[in-house]
């Protein structure tokens, strides 16, 4: 008998028929002799709808009320599944984040999980009950409802699996595993049987939304085996796990793209010590993650500073930077959200030279201009014009020999 955590994403619970499909899968797992904890997302499109309502209600919605609103989609799906399971003769109970007590910090919209209490869940499992937990949400030390950032149900599931010391965390979604690139934009994408935590983490951070980055961080930290599987077929699957010696080290194992990017340029900044700190400290204090940063060569004591943020942070970042613009003596702010980030990832890059150069040459051959570049040991990312994202992914996938053998 094992303890299994199963997470089902938005498309897997998009309507009553799909929730019935989930109920059947849960019952099958339970009947095979396992304890089952299910984590659900909201129905596909529901969180977007709720966000749209909040934005209609106010230009800059209050964070506490915003999270209270956008977390409601998950309350609907967990109670519906519990209703169905009970009606099918399988005892089940739904729990919201505060009822489990998934304690988070106070950062509304992007809270981080601090601790997960397991007593309530374990009591229910002890009675033979299937526990259905609302993903994406927690509660802060002041009892406010918080949410974990888009795609946060993955993180709820892995955090629960870690806290409960589950044997496995299955992430059920609309594709049958992790591919060399998004199979929905590149028909030659190849499914990987296994991928290391480190590579998965880089792919997730670079925009492969199949797993939220924070979920992979937690899986790595607590050594939780994560299987990415399809809700709709029993075929395939990808195991995300620690590196094993026999694992093949491909130079490049994946290509990702991220359209959720915006480029902000602070124009004509005085080139003197302390300016970067004055610009970036208030951004980090407001939990805005700055990804790439470039500073141009200095001309007559002035420079342009360009950086990228997530699109949802544009408004806050503009407000924050505008406040310090005069202080630091910069001229103005320019925002370009017509960009995408394209990345290649692979642990094998550490021991190979020329990988970045090959990436640049491949993009150049297609006439794709590179606006920004960043590199790490196992990743190279380029910011390009948004309209080239898919073409860039396809030609890079091809250039690094990742295509499916057929
Ligand atoms: P869910 O609603 O189940 O959480 P998501 O939409 O968040 O599902 O994530 C699944 C999607 O991730 C897939 O439909 C696919 O388009 C996208 N994706 C991007 N990169 C990859 C990749 N490398 N492998 C698999 N899926 C990917
Ligand atoms: N419902 C949330 C979202 O759409 C969380 C999730 O799906 O993981 O982002
Ligand atoms: Mg998701």
Structure notes:
It is a single chain. This protein is α/β, with parallel strands linked by helices and 406 residues long. The chain has two domains: 3-174, Acetylglutamate kinase-like (Carbamate kinase), CATH 3.40.1160; 255-399, VC0802-like (2-Layer Sandwich). Helix content is 35%, strand content 27%. The chain has 13 helices and 18 strands. The chain has helices at residues 16-31, 46-57, 63-70, 72-87, 97-100, 119-126, 153-164, 197-205, 213-222, 275-285, 314-328, 355-365, 389-399; strands at 3-8, 35-40, 92-95, 102-104, 113-116, 130-134, 137-139, 145-147, 168-173, 194-196, 226-230, 238-241, 254-270, 290-295, 302-309, 332-345, 372-376, 379-385. A hairpin with a 2-residue loop joins strand 17 and strand 18. The longest helix is centred in the N-terminal third of the chain and has 16 residues, at 16-31. It is globular. The two termini are 40 Å apart. Bound molecules: adenosine-5'-diphosphate, aspartic acid and magnesium ion. Residues 9, 151, 154, 209 line the site of magnesium ion. Magnesium ion (MG) is lined by residues 9, 151, 154, 209.
């Amino acid at each position: 008998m094992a303890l299994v955590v199963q997470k089902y994403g938005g498309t897997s619970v998009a309507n009553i028929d799909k929730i019935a499909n989930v109920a059947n899968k849960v019952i099958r797992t339970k009947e095979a002799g396992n304890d089952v904890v299910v984590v659900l997302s909201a129905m596909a499109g529901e969180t977007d709808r709720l966000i749209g309502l909040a934005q209609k209600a106010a230009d800059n919605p209050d964070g506490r009320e915003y999270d209270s609103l956008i977390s409601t989609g998950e309350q609907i799906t967990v109670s519906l599944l519990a209703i169905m399971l009970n009606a099918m003769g399988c005892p089940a109970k739904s729990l919201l984040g505060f009822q489990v007590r998934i304690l988070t910090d106070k950062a509304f919209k992007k809270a981080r999980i601090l601790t997960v209490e397991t007593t309530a869940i374990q009591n229910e499992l002890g009675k033979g009950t299937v526990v259905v937990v609302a993903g994406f949400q927690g509660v802060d030390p002041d009892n406010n409802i918080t949410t974990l950032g888009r795609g946060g149900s993955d993180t709820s599931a892995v955090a629960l699996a870690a806290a409960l010391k589950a044997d496995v965390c299955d992430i059920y979604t609309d594709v049958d595993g992790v591919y060399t690139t998004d199979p929905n934009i590149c028909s030659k994408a190849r499914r990987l049987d296994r991928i290391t935590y480190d590579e998965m983490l880089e792919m997730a951070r670079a925009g492969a939304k199949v797993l939220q980055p924070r979920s992979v961080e937690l899986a790595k930290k607590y050594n939780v085996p994560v299987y990415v599987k399809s809700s709709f077929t029993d075929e395939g699957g990808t195991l995300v796990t620690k590196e094993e010696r026999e694992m093949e080290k491909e130079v490049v194992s994946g290509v990702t793209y991220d359209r959720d990017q915006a480029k902000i340029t602070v124009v004509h900044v005085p080139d003197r010590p302390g300016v970067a700190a004055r610009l970036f400290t208030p951004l980090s204090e407001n939990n805005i993650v700055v990804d790439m940063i470039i500073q141009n060569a200095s001309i007559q004591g002035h420079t342009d500073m360009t950086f990228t943020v997530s699109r949802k942070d544009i408004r806050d970042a503009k407000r924050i930077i505008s406040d310090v613009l005069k202080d630091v003596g910069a001229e103005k702010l320019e925002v370009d959200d017509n960009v995408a980030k394209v990345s290649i990832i692979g642990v094998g890059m550490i021991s190979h030279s020329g990988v970045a150069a090959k990436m640049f040459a491949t993009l150049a051959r297609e006439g794709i201009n590179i606006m920004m570049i960043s590199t790490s040991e196992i990743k190279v990312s380029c910011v390009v014009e948004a309209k080239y994202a898919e073409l860039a992914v396809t030609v890079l996938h091809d250039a690094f020999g990742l295509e499916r053998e057929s």
